[in-house]
Amino acid sequence: MNVARLILSVLFISCMVWLWYPYFIQEDAVADEQAQIIAEPDYTAIKLKQTAYNEQGKVSHKVTAVRMELYQQLGFTFFEKPIFTLYNEQQTWRINADEATLYDGRQLILEGNVTAQNLVNNAMIDTITADNINVDIKLLTMQSQQPVVITGPNLKIMGKGLEANLKTEVIKLINHTRTLYYDQ
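Below the sequence we write its predicted structure tokens.
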């Protein structure tokens, strides 16, 4: 009787392995597909320094970053600790953040401790800080839906949401919260 049980057990285990084998292979195929989906950068730059020019041959913007990864097929570039300097005929702004993503060489999304500093002396606004700011490099516009702090030599403005045109030097808060004026 023990031999019959042993043969029956081996037969049962063989049938189970035969029936379940395709499911084991399928999981490996899914894991391989997921591994292929994760994109690898086309190239990576360490300690990046780059200057971009506009159609007239003038400096449009400069970029420095600790690390840059280009994903050309996906259409974006990722930066760690970037510093973007945007040039306009009237004003120059330096914007830095913990990380940034540039889409199509135009739309820049800066995230984490974002600071936009006006490099013009005696300007009414010195810095704009937020956790997230979107910049259109071609149009020289900034916007944010996050809480924003705008500081100048004699004032500090707090609010939520920002729309700024760096060409016309117009900055608009969507939801003004508080303004502090300092004595001169």
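Residues 93 and 124 are 13 Å apart (CA to CA).
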